[in-house]
Write a structure and sequence with these properties.
Order of helices and strands: EEEEEHHHHEHEHEHEHEHEHHEHHHEHE
Largest sheet: 8 strands, parallel
Number of helices: 15
Mean pLDDT: 96
Distance between the termini: 9 Å
Shape: globular
Strand content: 15-25%
Structural class: alpha/beta
Oligomer: single chain
C-alpha cells in the first residue's frame, strides 16, 4: 500500500457504477492514495498527480471469489475416475468415498498441512486477479478440526496479498459417528464449535447446508439463532438438490446470501428480494454433477435480486479455482450476460460477503484493481481457458 498519490491514466475503466453498461469510462483516469481510490473519471478532467500509463488497457475492480471450500485435506480424483468408470455415488460412498474421505483427510491434517495444500489453489486464484476470497470450514465436523480449518484460513491471509473472509460451516454434513442423530450433532459439535470459533475471532459469518442429505430448516434455524446471538451474519447453501424453503429461511434471518439455488421457487426469490439477500450462482457444481435444472436466473432478474458468481472450489463437486471460467460457465450454462457475470464477481460478490469497501471503482473504496490485456469487459467471460491479466493493483500499488 502506498500513501503517495498516483494517477493511473490511459485506460478503459469498467467501474461497475450504475448507468452505462459496466459503468464503462473510455480514456479514464483513476487517482489512488493511501490504498484508496480518491477520484475516477475521464482523463481530461483528472486532477494533477504522478501518472502511471496503463497503455489503453481495460481496468476492473479486483475479482472476489465469495464462496469457496479451498481449505481441506486430500482430494477426490479417484472417485471422480470411479464414477466415470460406472460406479454409482452409493458405491463410492460405501467404499469410503464422498465427503467422508475428505473429512478423514482433513481431520488428519495439521494447520500447516492445510495451509500448504491450500496455497497452490490460492495462488491460482490470485493469478487471475482475485483479491478477496471467502473460505469455509465444514470438513472437520468435530470441534478441533473445524477450528483448525479456520485457523488455516486466517494464516493464508498473511502469506499472500489477498483478503480472506471466513465462514463457519459446522452444519455442512452429519459425520459418520452421528449417523441418524443430526440434532445431537448440532448440540454436541456444531454449536460448541461455533461458540469456540467466535471466541477465538475465527468466524466472519456462519453458513449451513439446508438439504435432505444434510440439515432441515428447523436444524439450520437453531444454528442461525446462535449466530444471531453472537452478532454474526449468516448465509446458506439452499435449494441445490430440492426445495426445502432454505432461501426463504435465510432471508428471514437477513442473510448475506443464499447459494446454489437450482430449485429456488418464486416465493423464495420474493423473500430474498425483500431481505436484500444476494443469490450466489455456482455453475461449477452444476457442471461437475451434470445437473440439468438451472437456477431461475430470469426470476432473480425480474425481482431485482443481485446475483454473485463464485467457483465453489471444493474437492468433491467443484474442484475448480478459475473465477474467469466460472464467469464463462454462468453465461453459457445459465444464460447470464457478461455484464451480470462481471458484476457477480465484483460488486455483488462484495455484497455477498457484507463488504461495502470494494467491488467497484469509486471514490472511497479500496484501490484493488486488475489491469487486463483486453479491449472490452465482455472478453473476461468470453474466453475459455485463457487468462488476459496484465497486472494487479492492490492497495494502489502497481
Amino acid at each position: 500500500m502506498t500513501s503517495t498519490p498516483c494517477l493511473f491514466v490511459n485506460c478503459r475503466a469498467a467501474t461497475m457504477a450504475e448507468g452505462a453498461p459496466y459503468g464503462l469510462i473510455d480514456d479514464a483516469a483513476i487517482l489512488t492514495e493511501g490504498g484508496t481510490i480518491r477520484w475516477v473519471g475521464p482523463r481530461a478532467d483528472a486532477p494533477s498527480a504522478a501518472t502511471h500509463d496503463l497503455g489503453g488497457r481495460l481496468v476492473t475492480p479486483a475479482l472476489i471469489d465469495c464462496h469457496t471450500h479451498v481449505v481441506h485435506g486430500g482430494h477426490r480424483a479417484g472417485e471422480f475416475e470411479q464414477r466415470l468408470n460406472g460406479a454409482t455415488y452409493e458405491e463410492v460412498a460405501r467404499a469410503g468415498g464422498g465427503i467422508v474421505s475428505t473429512v478423514r483427510a482433513t481431520r488428519a491434517a495439521s494447520v500447516e498441512d492445510l495451509v500448504a495444500s491450500a496455497l497452490p489453489r490460492i495462488d491460482a486464484m490470485v493469478a487471475e486477479g482475485v483479491a478477496t476470497i471467502e473460505i469455509k470450514s465444514g470438513y472437520g465436523l468435530d470441534v478441533e478440526t473445524e477450528l483448525r480449518m479456520l485457523r488455516a484460513a486466517r494464516a493464508l491471509a498473511a502469506l499472500r496479498p489477498v483478503t480472506i473472509r471466513t465462514s463457519f460451516l459446522g452444519a455442512h454434513a452429519v459425520p459418520a459417528e452421528y449417523a441418524g442423530r443430526a440434532d445431537a450433532y448440532i448440540d454436541d459439535v456444531c454449536l460448541s464449535a461455533l461458540h469456540a470459533a467466535h471466541a477465538e475471532g475465527l468466524a466472519d459469518a456462519v453458513d449451513g447446508f439446508c438439504e435432505g442429505i444434510a440439515f432441515s430448516p428447523a436444524q439450520i434455524a437453531r444454528v442461525f439463532d446462535v449466530a444471531r446471538s453472537l452478532g454474526l451474519p449468516v448465509k446458506l447453501h439452499a435449494e441445490q438438490l430440492s426445495n426445502l424453503g432454505g432461501a426463504a429461511l435465510a432471508a428471514g434471518y437477513q442473510a448475506l446470501s443464499a447459494d446454489h439455488l437450482e430449485y429456488l421457487d418464486e416465493a423464495g426469490v420474493q423473500a430474498m428480494a425483500a431481505a436484500g439477500t444476494v443469490a450466489v450462482i455456482l455453475p461449477g457444481a452444476f457442471y461437475t454433477l451434470r445437473e440439468t435444472k438451472a437456477p431461475p436466473i430470469a426470476l432473480l432478474r425480474q425481482y431485482g435480486v443481485p446475483m454473485a458468481v463464485s467457483t465453489d472450489m471444493n474437492p468433491g463437486s467443484s474442484p475448480m479455482t478459475s473465477l474467469l471460467l466460472t464467469m464463462n460457465m454462468a453465461c453459457t450454462l445459465f444464460r447470464m450476460t457478461p455484464e451480470e457475470a462481471l458484476r457477480g464477481a465484483t460488486q455483488h460478490a462484495a455484497r455477498a460477503l457484507g463488504l461495502g469497501d470494494r467491488g467497484m471503482l469509486a471514490p472511497g473504496l479500496r484501490a484493488d484493481m486488475v489491469v487486463w490485456n483486453a479491449d472490452t469487459p465482455a472478453e473476461l467471460a468470453y474466453r475459455i481457458g485463457f487468462n488476459p491479466i496484465h497486472q494487479r493493483i492492490i492497495g494502489g500499488r502497481a
